[in-house]
Fold each of these.
Amino acid sequence: MKVALITSDWPSFSGGGVANLSETMATALCAAGVQVEVWTRGGGPRSRSLGPRTDGLTVRGIAGRSWRRTGRKRWARAISGLVADFAPDALIVSPWDALPGILDGLRESARPPIWIVAHGRDITADLDPLREALRRRALSGPFRWLCLTEWMRGVLVGRGVEASRIALMPAAVPSPPAVEPSNPGDEFVLLTVGRLIDRKGHDVLLRALAALDDRAVRYRIVGDGPSRGRLEKLAKGLGIKDRVQFEGRLEGEAFEEAWASADLFAMLPRREGAGDSEGYGLVFLEAGSRGLAVLGAASDGAEEATTHEVDSLQLQDPEDIEAVTAALRRLRSDPALRQRLGAAGRLRFERAGRAEHLAAALIAVLAEGCHTPLRCPPEALEGRWVVAVRAAMPSPRPQAWQAFQQAVGLARSGLPEVVLLADAALPDGGPVNPEDWLGEVLPQGVRLLVPGRWHRPPMAGWLFRRRLRSLRSDAATLLCRDPRVAATEQGRWGRLLLEWHVRPDLGLRGHPRALAAADLHIAVSRGIRADLLALGVPADRVVLLPNACGVDLGRALRRSESGRRTSPDSRPVLALGLHRRAGLDQALAAWRLAPDLPLLLIGGRDQGSLRTSAWEREVEADPALKGRVRFLGPFWGTHREDLLDSVGLWLCLYPRDEDSLTRLCPLQVADASGSGLPFVASDLPSIRHQLSEGPGELVAGEDPQLLAAAIRRGLDSAPSDPLQHPRWHDRAKRLIQLA
């Protein structure tokens, strides 16, 4: 694949986020084996950056002066020759400024697919009538768009761009060099890196620093810009000039020394007049890559650069001096909080913010729009995974939810494409839109293949098998959880992984062939692993990998923090998925016995069934239960998170049958343990293994008195730490390593 990156802003003469993202995009694609040329402004000092580089990137410049007045003509004169010489498969224009000249200089039939990168103020700022007309031409044309945030996607859609023509790409920054922290122990260093313009909020931090009135706090400001003189006067007027250092623009060792000296990174972007907005803020990701805690603001695209109480403290009003001062004081006095936020920021960078993550996503997105056949490097093709599940999608059934979460986790782990194939489109109590099911926008790399309507067997199975055949590839990985699928797909994939959620049985159809077909057998519990080994599967082809937590981490952390400050004993108890009779009967018996227990909320996909209706009548007829037990429907996405915010304890009860003792890998317990809530669960060996050594009240047997006592203890106990429980992207990274 050949890609030309066209930009007027190149790092040889600019240090802004647009230029840095362009550099990261170009170098990452080169490192992934794509042929890349950068076409930019040249002439004068800029010519120092032109020509081939040692990393394989070639930069070609167009000489000239007064580019603001003559840039369109210069691009128009040069573009046809550049395209003829390089013959790119795709053009990336970042930002849109060069597009009018490109359209003037290239006939439509000679144009490769054009992708435009939307950053921030290039889309939102107020422009003069002539430039506004040019921007409207870009927005209304047959082009595709790349952006970093859902906020920018919404802005583009609001300006008339079809949602199907917009692709999200992961933000990425280069890996920082290893530099030891260098700040003196008796000082607290606050750092801001960025252009000195009103939008960045330096003035608010200066005022908060004065209000903090702590002589040990020093503020280093790295960067330059038109607001520098005004900010220096403000620091002098506030009486903090001796505690503020204006460093100017730094590079190399001096730049890294500034990062190493910092205890906290802070930037409070805000929306300025004339539509000037922060599109993302790559510098937040830079801080995270260095393990530095962040103080940020929920302003436009910057809200998606960090997560409040996960890797940052994020202020809703970036101009509230009191709130900024309080946040600084909290971060100043709590080293453990700074360490937790910094570690989470580093983890975010490692999981999704590296240059290779950006390259993989770009290769997959660009390949779809190329006129010429795909010529990606083989390793890009090998990144494609197919997750196949014989279940309706979306659906509240555990097998559908588990497969869906795993596909999303694989995409978030940097795979360029994850295809999720289901055999039916049957909401069955779940939302019709998969994004409502998940509670957030699907990652760019996930592609859902679900029939447009529900089909009965055998038609559903025939359509499923036909679609699966169309996806076969020696360079792809198939992950399935049905032994019958594995048995029919043997030898037709680069790797075949089979997840066992049922007990393997040589007497069942497909199981004997599946045992031989899979390259790797994934057991979700110790009992299933023991069964596989007992049936003769070699130990090096069996791995034990329990389910992970699918509760939103940011919401879970806020829930956990709130639970540590307040007593949850007045809030309801939640029981989701008690569709097995023994669990619900045990809960109702405990509520009959203990009138002091709070309201019991029962949710699950069986709401409305004959069995649940019988329980509802039983509760209504029992004075000890009436008004104290409420039945809810199934909850997914943000509705489930809102429900978890309103309760004080999560109840997970399972029968003590043979399979539950050792072969159960309950999604409910995995979610409860990472939800930020206290929880009570059945004391089974399989559940103990799921929890490892994590906290949680476990109740043995089915004695309602023991259950009531465990619930009281659970309501009084501290919530678990959500960071200690693996999420689906953690499990996905392990899967990728194993494959």
Amino acid sequence: MGSFIAHAQMAGNKLNADSSRFIELREVKIDAKQKSIHQSLQSFFKANNASTLEEIMNRLPEISFVRRGPYGMDPTIRSLNGGQINTLVDGMRIYGACTDKMDPATIYIEPMNLENIQVQTGNSGFLSGSSIGGTINLKVAEPDYRQAKQISGSLSSGYQSAANGWFKSLLLNYASGKWAFRASGTYRRNDDYRIGGGEHINFSQFEKVNYSFSAKYRYNQYTFLKADFLGDDGWNIGYPALPMDVGYAAARIGSISIESENRNKTLYKWSAKLYANRIKHFMDDTHRPDVPVHMDMPGISKTIGAYADGEWKLNHNQSLLLRADLASTYLKATMTMYQPGQLPMYMLTWPDHRKYQSGVSASWVNNFDSLWRLQLNGRMDIINYRLISADAKEEISILGYPDASRNDLLKNFSAQISRKLNETLKASFSIGYAERVPTGSELYGFYLFNSQDNFDYIGNPQLLNETSFQAEGSLVFHKAANRFQLTAYYKNIQNYITGLFDPSLTSMTIGAEGVKSYINIPGAILKGVELSAVVNQVKYWQLVSTLRYTYGRSNENVPLPLIPPLKNVSSVRFQPGRFSAQMEYEAASSQYRINTDAGEDVTEGYFLLHARLGYVMDIFKCTTSIQFGMENIFDKLYHEHQDWGNIPRPGRNIYVQLKISF
């Protein structure tokens, strides 16, 4: 039967098996010969057919989200986000066009678009781009030659009560001879959602449509050519934790690529891709009551880039991965204020600038014997920032920076050693050094309002690069269909970038408490532990559980902001055949370690209970799946620590889903 797979594994040499997670989303046919530990996590990361990408990713122990509303949540890897991590789509760099981080790359992708989610943490997360926090790569689904039918696909529809939300999707796959095509479309509409107790959260609605098309040509037995296009349009998007909403957000993402794999050759796998994307984003306050000054705030992001990589078998024990990539990104955002009785006031909130990036990386693996394994990773990047208009240069010069261009050489390297202790137990340990360059907002941002701490922020072109010394260890137990993994990590970040109140500057946002400038502080420390377990000990029964805890502080022993508390998600599933029943709970402790300068207060702990039912049947040669569930059964009023403005999350939510596969 069709199912969704979630698993952690090594994908070639690109992913480190002990510091990565590889989440399979593409629908596949599973028979008894194919079942393995990786299928045992099915339906845990895919709670229901209408799950958003954020809902799926949030169940991973490494990932959490900064939430400003139910749409466009900002992903973090072990509490690092923004420019501290890479978020890629099929290896492509995409930068949001919003100065308020309303549009991370993840909002332009639907689970229907994806084959898998690759999460690289620890000391291998910089191979696709210099990073101190890791990489999330959203691998786009490809046309499938393996289908028994020439035309196949699925149709889904569903309803969720908490936001009066509707979900519809369509997937089509066509394969004939050397050609295969794949097309998909998804539509979502949510009203203002209801929280525990019955109250509705104003300005939490959204509507969007997502569509994609892929064509694949089999040149020969080993080589394929592929073209992809993905579009996403959202409108009337509410952000209850912010003073403005989004009138529209649109993405156009395209690429052409070639890839080859022949295990009989020394260069057994290689690929190359050329891509381009454009993001348009328009903030809107016209639906907000009592707005003292109406503002238009459009932003645009354009990126073109290319990459090539290859994997070599050096000998029976050794392999080598090489990657080269380059990209050019243009960013610009403006604000026009319409004050009654005065001429409109115009300024650049992101002075138009361009970022040029080029880099090379390598990963060498040596399996000394059946027990010991060594992996060495390295990467270098050359990054150039420059302002590209006279207006941009003039605006930044007002802040005392006559020359705001910069060139940076970034260096990253790591080493990991792992050993099988016995047939079921493996231990690994890695150390590394990584660097990251400041973002456009940190360098050039001009009076960017932060509603969490109620300050305007301005950039600093003279910021130093953040650097990180890091260590990570893991212990993995794997026997039959049971798996346990314990991971501990430590990061010592130097030149940590944060905001500092500048009393010499006057705020521009009405009601703001002042202005903060981005500065470097000497350092910060992040450390934590993660545990995941999959147990299939009894027939038809499955237990999946994840637990995470992160501790962060500055060099002056001040808690870092937006650090989530201890959290556990556990699921018990009973599936004797076509019928399935699942009980699931989420629990988080209170967070008392807060940073009041960042606008934080104490967050109370919570306990949530969810129930899910499913049934699969065959009707007219189609596989029909019906899902029913109730989330937050006790209608708990709660919010998570990374939720801006303490905006409560949805209360009791009843959903029903229908999916027909043909």
Amino acid sequence: MGPVILVALTARPNSTARPRPGSADPGRPWWRSEWPGCLLVTAVTLLAYQQAWHAGFIWDDDAHVTRPGLRSLHGLWRIWFEPGATQQYYPALYSAFWIEHRAWGDDASGYHLANVLLHAVSACLLFRVLRQLSVPGALLGAALFAVHPVCAESVAWISEQKNTLSAVFSLLAALAYIAYDRDRRPRGYAIGMVCFALALLSKSVAATLPAALLVVFWWKRGRLSWKGDVLPLAPWLALGAGAGTLTAWMERTHVGASGAAYAMGLADRFLVAGRALWFYLGKLLWPVDLTFVYPRWVIDAGDPLQYLFPAAAVGALAALWMIRNRSRGPLCAALLFAGTLFPALGFINLFPFIYSFVADHFQYMAAAMALSAVAAGAALAAQRLPPAGRSAAGIAAVCLVAALASLTWRQCAMYADTESLWRTTLARNPAAWMARNNLAADLLERGRVDEAIAQVRMAIASEPRNAVAYVTLGDALEEKGRTEDARAQYEKALETEPGNAIAHNNLGSALLQAGRADEAIRHYQSALATKPDFEKAHANLGDAFLRTGRPDEAIAEYGRALEDDPDDAPANANLGTALAQKGRMDEAIVHFQRALEIDPRFAVAQINLGNVLLQGGRTDEAIGHYEKALEVDPHSSAVHNNLGYALLRAGRLDEAIAHFRISLSLDPGNGGARRNLADALSRK
């Protein structure tokens, strides 16, 4: 959405001979140009977000940062031409992540610094747009946007690079179109259209930009021309509508924004929208108790008091409409703020609504509108003061920016790592069951199983319909060796949410471990019916097929899994095993070697590669791989036996005998080792 203002200014002058506001003036000294303001805005942005520079990955960052299957040139092609290859169809965003991964790999600091710089660029572009539109207080508006703590969620969270990148392209598009509106040169229009398309391909909330431009032109002129104003923006409006429709469809079908949690009537949605508008405005004007997950409101269309929020919003707009002849600025600002927020007001299902109807990152660009308006109003008020009062107002503005920067610096601390994020969220919103469940998952990943179980049980107590929490509890119980209890939790998850792909996958793994392969296969297939690109379910289904003697089907599933994650060492090794069973030894060797490139200490891959090499007569190479397997697991009776057999084939009888004896000492019931030892002794 394009940045704008809120103050009533005079209509645009008819004369084109007068230099436009913000344009280069050969007689103006450099310190009165826009560059010092941009440098100042950039500096305060970098300082305010210093704590985010070295933060880590949190929550769903791994779903946005380029995953292994998309890191090649073919992966870049998939990002653009295969909807569903990424979480949302935002190819400009995921191309940026692709480039960033090439630059700094899995170092989170690079992504954080890129996001901070994009936010600084957005603030500088906002400053330039405000100057082009002759808005008072342009520098203050840009600075407030740069350091306001409401923006911290968008800037300190890597996943929300979609906000900062889309804002850069949106503001560039706005600048280009403003230039086109002034001189009607096709070059400006073309540049603006390209930037607008890139903004939509970064995040479709940019679809509100052409409507915002129309509001701005109405504010400047007092009227709109069909031919001069509306018609040129009609293609932009159509492009934005198409992008918004695609995103809404992706949210429902790929992200999961569907089901009972999203079943709201039209009246409910108006109640959400009315309350959300005032909530967002309140957080901008008084930014306290900002958190990652806000309490989810109970919406009741039968409660008359809840209609006060939308009624107050409609009343405010009506009052601003009535004073439009005296000042169009306030109405313009209100329309820009509400219009930019429209995609997140509840009329379109967004996945986070399952946790809360509001989030700080939803109002990133809307904040630019409102803060520009506040700055413009303050600047106009300051102009009416005597010189001493104007000096005091300047000092107050500096203090306000410093105070907001300090709040942002503190707010960034919660994004340092996943545990900080969830514990801070719970401190500010103890009922946030999503945060408690994610904290449990993080603790489980760190091996703190008992703490994880305690947290996830509290999450379930807060929200018994939380299928994800049952899955997490099942995973924790699996870690404790309580397989039957784990299966029961996965089944509860599926009772709550029958289409939960992760629950189907994990239940399948528990059943496969219990020897119930046919049931496991059915659950893996159910997981893939819901989520066809679920790489782990493809790999697990391959394991089940391999275990039940169906190598052809196993090969197909492993191949699909490796398309999405070529660096999955177990999938490569198991594909090698399936290929070996089909007699495709050369291909099997390639995949065993790939597994060992990824994980040199993968003992099973060393053993199986040794077996294939030995079968192919490459005895010395096989011996080397068995020896490497023993470095990882020196107490494996099977590996000692295999190494002994390879040594026997190589004529190294004494060494072979020694390994057969070690094998039997580790497992006296190993009949193969006993026969091989007898053979070696008879030869000797």
Amino acid sequence: MSDKLNFKDIFDLLSTGDKQPVAAIYMTYGFDAQLFESHVLPAFLGVSTGADDFDLQSNTQNGMYFRNQIAMKLREVPITVFSDGDQYSGGRSFLYDHIVVRGRTFHPKCYLLLFSDCLRVVVTSANLTIGGMCYNAEILWQEDVYFDQPSTIAGDLLEILLEIEKVSDHETPEAAKVIQQFLSKVPAVDGFPKLISTCGKISPFDEIVNAVKDNKLLPKEVTIVSPFYEKDREAEFDRSMALSFANHFPKDTKINLYFPAVLQNGKWLVNAPQHLFSELSAQHPNTRFFAMPAQWELESGDMVARSLHGKLISVRFDGKSYLTIGGSVNFTERAMRSNRDKLLNVEIGVMEMSKQSFPIPESTQVNLSDLEVIELGTPIPKPVCFVVSAELAGTVLTIQMDPSKSKCPYKILYQDKTLTTIENVQEQVIFQNFKLKRSQDIEIKVDEMSFFVPITIMNKSEYISDDLEWDFTIGFSDVIDFLSGRYRSMSELRKTIKVSKKAGNGNYTGLYFRQNLQRYFKAMDALTQSLEQSFYTEFAFKNYLTSPAGLQKLTEMILEDYRSGSAEKPESFLFISELLQVLLHLHFVEDVWVSADFKKNEIRKIIDQLLPVLKVLYSQAKGLLRQEFTIICDAYEIEVK
């Protein structure tokens, strides 16, 4: 169901609730990594902090527990954040994909949350910042898209995602692959609502003008809400663009302009070009101006600070029908006129038809003589980013530079410590034996100014971050106990093993084999059920296999015990044959998300590690033991000869 463009709490829409999270993409201009990781990320992943004063960045036992839970979830659910490179100030500490876009203003605020039954699309004016999420006056729109139901926005969204990939100049992240796969299955139809974007062939300006022309009814009133000037580096009303837009409507059309203002000494202080207002009034006599105060009155009567950040264009037609456009698009030349061929700003908005008007918050109609223009201060200079990429493969960090943009000397910092100082232009800087800690960003300092670059983790599914590492050695029986369901969570296993290690309990395969063999068979049964169940992404299936207590870990331990001689050969043969009996005879459920062929190929990689060893054990067995091995292999249909 589509929520009409409105003012409301965005956190309600960004939470999972009782749904199963599958993947998510967040597109934003400003990005506050700490806000995202402490509130938005756990809400989507379904990890509850259980306390209002919870600090995910702390090293307390409570903080580390929830970091571990979020890190485990991120192994199953791919997350990608796209943000503007010039606005990022670091702070990322989890292994999700963060892609910064440079070379143009990346200004959309669009959040795509894929659940097991639908894709939630949220188009808004709110950045992933404290201001956008908590304090500003923002506008948002939401619709849930189902893969078996026609959608008017699925085709638009798929096209936008493909174009944003080109703009970001980055390999397609896993979350984008999953969401694009979902959208490709949705029947696309024409109509409203529809998404508009500067990534398309037609600019938002022309999209709106064409929609007005296509409507058979006469436009009677145009309402424009825009912050004019804001922290987002957007400029004021553009003179030619604004007048050109107004000239597409009949002269008697009412034009309402809403803007933020502060009342001081009888004057409304604004960041707006007063000369443009005068020219609009001269050419369109029915133009009216409304000041939106920074203080809004709540239902309780209390006043609260609400800086206007919402962007809205609404056209009322004869017969009281409304064309409403909201999203990230400010009423500026850069935002309204950009398109795929002239892409200055990347923007996303939504356009819909309705029989109801948008509820404009309380405002004050003002005369031009009541306005006093505030002169803008000089913007703080920022260094030009000359880092193309920072990739970590194992323990090797490779930083690729653009020599044509480099400004020397500069320092490369990690976790507030200088790694090196570069005196001359270089194309590449390599750090051996690099240890990734909590911070996921590097900092480049030039002339006392800095910019941050996210570190891309290569082979991320195989990487074990600090939040996944154990402060004890996990053993064979621990893995079996976890797989067999003895523990409800990895954290419960962790606490139990820490206590047992302090007590000096051993953890050897031979001891386990004699005392707890029944748990191994129970674990194999649980493993069968888990592998055969439906998985929502290929990413989740692969990470299920490679989790700290998963199938790949179990396989490595069985083989290591065999090769080191810690386990006797008959014991190794039993463990491997029982495991192969599971892997060779899986019956996958019909799955609309992950194909059986993909699952079989991933399982085959593990089978190929185990089967050669089983064949060696079989060939070395003699007499009665050989006969017993033959009976087992024949019964399990394992070819060893």
